[in-house]
Amino acid sequence: MKFTGFLIACCLTANLAVAAEKTTIHLAVQATGTVAWELATLNKHPAADYELVVQQVANPEAAKVALQSGAVDVIVSDWLWVARLRATGTDFTFYPYSSASGALVVAKDSPIHTLKDLVGKRLGVAGGELDKNWLLLQALAQQEHLDLNASVEKTVGAPPLLNEQLLQKRVDALLTYWHFAARLEGQGYRQIIDGKGILQGLGIHETVPTLGYVFKQSWAQAHQQALTHFLAASAAAKIQLCTDDAAWHEIVPLTQTDDVATQAVLRRHYCEGNISGWGDKEQQAAARIYSLLHSLSQQQLTGASETLPAGTFWTPGPL
Questions:
Q1: What keywords tag this UniProt record (predicted)?
Q2: What is the Cα–Cα distance from 16 to 95, expressed in whole angstroms?
Q3: CA 196 to chain centre
Q4: No. of helices (H) and no. of strands (E), the chain
Q5: Position 302 in a domain
Q6: Residue 155 CB-half CA count within 13 A
């Protein structure tokens, strides 16, 4: 696997002089999330100018509360949430972490092979009615003159519960987050389409992140050097996990599965989510996705702003 880091080169080749006082970066992460994989690798190489203080949280909502209350400086979340907040006047901003996306999964021997095959079937949807993959999947189906919302028996719920429902054949297909889909794939289930495929079907071919590091723009400006070096180290740790088998095997216990096939699928999808370029084209694509979701959700997902608020994506200035 070959990767190119768009932020790494400018930072890791620099001569990082040891600062007299390190910047403390308070980071909230889920113990079971992929950020924990990178931190386990990253922590073996102490940074020159920053120190991480990691606070474990139970779920993404807890991380958002911690960031908004000022308990932490950085979390991992989605840019749509950031855009919604910026529209209300906050100065949170987003920097890409991963483009790994959810997928529509069925049993290996399922008769479902296309979206039209979902008609009359039982469909599980992780994340609820406003899940962006569900909204975009409906938009894709509409191109085939198919109203998915009206033509399937839908069950919404938490991803672990829905995985179990699919395993027990209580639903026929499942639209879920990437790591839950990967675990099913490791057990022999197959993907009909993933989030990137849905976007391509809608005419969006650029790689757009699903998750990223979120922090206050004012905090980033005050601690830009330390933040930039942390982001570069995070990207380098991901590349190491994707290219160095020894490094990967060290974090395998964090995947919470002993099944070698599932570990391999998790690694593959994790690595496919690497962001190797993030420029004007990708940000314009994100703006198109925002407009589409603004319309599809009738503002419920994005908030009132018709266009992507300026500053949603963080652009570091010169060091």
A1: Signal
A2: 22
A3: 12
A4: 14, 10
A5: no
A6: 18
Tens-digit pLDDT profile for residues 130-187 = 999 999 999 999 999 999 999 999 999 999 999 999 999 999 999 999 999 999 999 9
In sign, the C-alpha dihedral spanning 235, 227, 56, 95 is negative
CB atoms within 10 A of CB 23: 18
Give residue 118's domain range.
103-201
In a domain, 131, yes or no: yes
Q: Looking at the domain assignment, is residue 153 inside a domain? A: yes
The mean per-residue pLDDT over the stretch 178-201 comes to 97
Domain termination site, one of 169, 201, 233: 201
Question: Is residue 57 exposed (0-12), middle (13-18) or buried (19+ Cβ within 10 Å)?
Answer: buried
The answer to whether residue 29 is domain-embedded is yes
113 and 160 both lie in a single domain: yes
Q: What is the DSSP letter of 74?
A: B
**3-class state of residue 10 by DSSP:** helix
